[in-house]
Each structure stands twice: as C-alpha cells, then as structure tokens.
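Hello support,

Our group uses your service weekly, and this is the first time we've seen a run hang past the timeout. The protein is SMP-30/gluconolactonase/LRE family protein. I'm not sure whether the cause is the sequence or the server load. Input pasted verbatim:
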Amino acid sequence: MRIGLIEFLLILAIASLTVGPRVALFVDRWMRRANRANAMAARRRAEYAAQMAAERDAMLKRFRTASTVFGVGILLVLVYALGFRPIDTPPQTYKAPDLRQETGAMQTAVSTDRKDRLELGEYQGVDCIRAKDGLLYAAAWNGAALKKRTADLVRTDGGHAAAILSVEGELTGFAFDAAGDVWLTQLTTAGGTLCRAKHDSWGAAVEQVVTQLDGAPLGAVSAVEVSPAGKVYFAVAAAAGAENGLESALRTELLAHTATGCVYVYDPAARTVEKVLGGVAGAAGLALSPDGSTLYVSDLGSRCIWAVDAAARELTAGGRGCTAAFAGLPGYPGALAADTDGTLYISYRWARSSWLEKNTDSTLLRGIALRAGQNTQERLFRRTADAPCAEAVSLATGAWEQTFTGLAQDSCAAVCPMESKVYFGAAGANSLLAANR
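Update from on-call engineer: The timeout came from a worker crash unrelated to the input. Re-ran successfully.
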C-alpha cells in the first residue's frame, strides 16, 4: 500500500506528539548529567590546580629556605676559611721599608729574540743559573707537584742541553767549589737538604751532608754559595715548611713576614754547621764578594740586601755587624750573582706590592691573603711590563749601573752574568733568557 504525503505527515505529527516529549525529557536529563559531570570535572581540575599551586609554593618555600641555609653555611665556611682557619705561619706586623728614588741607571730590556734564548727542552722552571768554564748550568724542574717532582742540573752551550745530575724534589740552588764538586740545596716534602756531588761522579751519587739542625729538619733551603776557602754558605728562606716548593714558601714568608729566615755555613773540614745570620724575612739569595770576605743576603720582605762579614757568626738582620748594603729596592729581591769585576746582580722575584705594604699592620687582611691560595697571591705580586726584573750595582762604589726590564714571566728566579750577557731564569720558563750588559 502506498502512503501519500498527507498520511506521512500525519504519522510524523502523531509520532512527534507521542514520542517527542520523552525524547526531549531524555535529552534534557542527558544534558543535565553532562553539565553536572563537566562541573565536577572543572571542580576537580580547580582543586588539582589549587593543590599543585600549594605544593609548588611549599616546594619553593622549602627551596628558598634551603638556599638561604646553604648560602649562610657557605658564607660561614668562607669566613672561617679566609679569616679564622688556623695557619702554620700567622702574619706578623712590621714597618714597610722606604722606596728608593730613581738611580738613573742604564735601562736594558731582556731580549725577545728566540736566537738569544738558550732552550732547555721540556723543563718548566729554572731556580738557579751558574757559569763555569764558558758553559752555563741551570737547575731546572719538570713542573709537577713537589712530591712528584724531579729536578736536573742541566748544562748548555747554547746549542745543546744535557742533564748531568738529577735529584728528587726541587734543586733550589747549586755552586761549584775549587775542586769542581757541586754543592746543592735540595727541597722535598720532607724538608731541605744540603748535598754534595763529587766531580768524578756527577749524575751517579749525591751525598746528603746536612739534613737537620738541632734535631729539626731544614726548612725551605733557597740558595748556596762556596767561598774561596771552601766554606759552604746556605740559606733557609723561613722556618715554615715548604710542601709546595720554594716559590710557595717565599710567597708565604712575604705575606707573613715571620722573619725566621737564616743563613748557615758548613765547614767540610770540620763537618760543623754554624749560624751566620738570622732574622731574615725571606732569605732568598746569597752572593760572596770576589775576595770572599763579604757575604750578601737577599731579604725578600725587607726589600734590601744585607752585607755581613763572611767570618761573622750569630748575627741578626739589621743588628750589630749587619748593614743594609742596598735598601729600598723596587722589587722583592731573590737570587744574587757577584761577577769577578765587582758587580752585584740582584734579581727581583716579584714586583713591589703597594697593597701588601699598605697593610703591614693588618694581620687580618694578610691572613686572608695567606689563606686565599696561590692564584690570589700571584695576582698581588704580578710584575708590570716596565717593572725591573734585575739590577746591577757596583760593590766598590755603590753606583747603580744597569736596570733590566721586560721579563715575560712573573717571577725572576735566577740571574747569572757570563761574558757580554746576563742570563735569567723564571719559575715557568723552559729556556734561559738573556740581555746585553
């Protein structure tokens, strides 16, 4: 049977009147449930967001509290480490020495030409230079920490370098006696030692001669000099230990100014050791006059060179029998070398620090510098390009003859005149630098 349009429309009308309200009610209930579900989900999301915000705020608060506690702890540790941590060498107050006026000496720059350098190969430091029979000898080391360091006595003729003797630790100084034997000052973590190497056994055996005084080990031995009569003078930079090498020991004494450095003399015939001079604020270098009658001693902290009778005993720096032959120096004096023509060459390990000498009465600030470490200390004494690295003065007249500048390294550790040149060594150098004289 065919349904017409009118019948179809009537059926739809009857269906809508019969089923429509139920469908509308169902849709309304479904929409209400959906709205309630959405509202509950929104409330849950809001509650979750509020909970997360509260937890985040609590975490941030705990983090800020922990950060504050950690920062205060670090600050307290830093204050303790820099200001109150016990140190082996508490600084002493002293009066800063005056600064000498300009001398008018001839200015000479250390050569930058590689042709004027004497290369030493893989070495990373030079502590002492000596000339003998037209050859140069250098005490050089390999740059490792002191407890792993090996130092060599290196001979060079300008074109070839050869190690003729090796010791453990640091070879801080050496000198030849009339018989050709080598006297050495050796520094290890256990302390300092005065040694001798026989001329016929270089490189084979090194004899330890003096290892302690009055039952205590030697401190930071820094230099050695042999008189024409065969007496052996050696310097101890300071009474404090030298676990990190001579350079560190001298920096420590420069800041602490304990004035415990000494010079001793060893008599090989009598096998005795006697004190020549005490009270030196960093005994960093020794030299004898050409006739061997006068001993010159570098006083690092007092910026002067003491002159004493080589035969004198038990003297005190600045006291009776000890005069400041050259004072008010422009840098902190280190190695010395006296030429046969009566000229004394004075090397300057570091440039004069105005900060240090403004705070000679402040043990707190210098104590902080002592505790701060090597990098800070090196910056305090860093030499400018125009600062002198060495000077030459006539022992006969006291006239300043020459000023040497332009050493690339910060620390001038060694000086030695030979023929028409003056040679220099530095703690971080692998070659000997030269300047005309």
